[in-house]
Amino acid sequence: MTPAPIAVALDAPDLETAARWAALVTPHVSTVKVGLELYLRYGPDVIASVRGASGVRLFLDLKLHDIPNTVAGAARAVARLRPSILTVHAAGGPAMIRAAVEAAPHTQIAAVTILTSLTEDDLGRIGLLGPADDAVRRLAALSVEAGATALVCSPNEVRAVRAEVGEGITLITPGVRPAGAATQDQARVATPEQALADGADLLVIGRPITGSPDPGAAAAAIAASLRRAS
Ligand SMILES: O=c1ccn([C@@H]2O[C@H](COP(=O)(O)O)[C@@H](O)[C@H]2O)c(=O)[nH]1
C-alpha cells in the first residue's frame, strides 16, 4: 500500500523514543519530521537514528531565520544530511530564502508562512493586521518568487495559497487534528480529510499520533481514513 502523505513530527525527549516512533509509523506514512527539540539535543546523529533502514523521507524542520549569509551556511551544513525538505521562515525575506535554495540544491526548501499556533489576534499584535489569509498569501508569493518550491501554512489557508501560487508548489500543513482531538497549542486547524480535500500535499501530524499508546496504529488509522476519503 502507498504510504499516506503524512509527515509524523517526532518531537520526542530522547533519541530512543524518536527512533521507536519512526519505526512504528514508517510502514504507514511517507515522511518523518525532525524538529528543533531533537536536532538541538542530538545534532546530525539524530538523522541516521530516525531514518533506520527504511526509505522514509526525512523532513528537517529547523525554521532557519537569519541574514542570508548565515542561512546559506546553515543550509549548506545540513544539506550533507540529505533531508528531503528543509524549512526556513518566509519572514526572513526573499534574499534569505534564495540563499537557502542556492546552498542546498538537492533539498526542497519549504518556507514557513505564518505559524499555525498564531491566532488573528496574535497576528494583529505583531503588526500583521487583517485576516491570516492575506499575510499567508503575501509570504507565499514572495517565497515562491525567491525559489522556494514548498510552503508551510495552516490547512485553513491551503485553498487561498494554491490560488496564489498555482500547481507545482508543495503545500505542507501542520495544524492537523482528527475530528474530536485536542487542538493543544495549535490555533488554525482542520481535520486530515479536510486538509487533503482542500489541496494539501503533505500533512504534518505529531501528538495525535505520537501521544497515542500505539503510534503505529494511530498512524495506520489516519492513513486509512485518508484513503477512504479520497
Ligand atoms: O506553522 C507551523 C510550522 C511547524 N509546525 C510543526 O509541526 C508539528 C506539529 O505538531 P503537532 O503535535 O501535530 O501539533 C510540530 O513539530 C511543529 O514544530 C507547526 O506546528 N506549525
UniProtKB/TrEMBL annotation:
It catalyses: orotidine 5'-phosphate + H(+) = UMP + CO2. Pathway: Pyrimidine metabolism; UMP biosynthesis via de novo pathway; UMP from orotate: step 2/2. It holds the Pfam family OMPdecase. InterPro entries: Aldolase_TIM, OMPdecase, OMPdecase_AS, OMPdecase_bac, OMPdeCOase_dom, RibuloseP-bd_barrel. Transmembrane segments: none annotated. The keyword Lyase applies. It comes from the Bacteria. Its EC number is 4.1.1.23. Keywords: Decarboxylase, Lyase, Pyrimidine biosynthesis. PROSITE patterns: OMPDECASE (PS00156). The active site is at K63. Substrate binds at residues 11, 33, 61-70, 116, 177, 186, 206-207. SUPFAM superfamilies: Ribulose-phoshate binding barrel (SSF51366). The keyword rRNA-binding does not apply. Residues 5-222 form the Orotidine 5'-phosphate decarboxylase domain. Catalyzes the decarboxylation of orotidine 5'-monophosphate (OMP) to uridine 5'-monophosphate (UMP). NCBIfam families: PRK00230.1 (NF001273), pyrF (TIGR01740). Homodimer. Belongs to the OMP decarboxylase family. Type 1 subfamily. This is Orotidine 5'-phosphate decarboxylase. It comes from Nonomuraea antimicrobica. The lineage of its organism: Bacteria, Bacillati, Actinomycetota, Actinomycetes, Streptosporangiales.
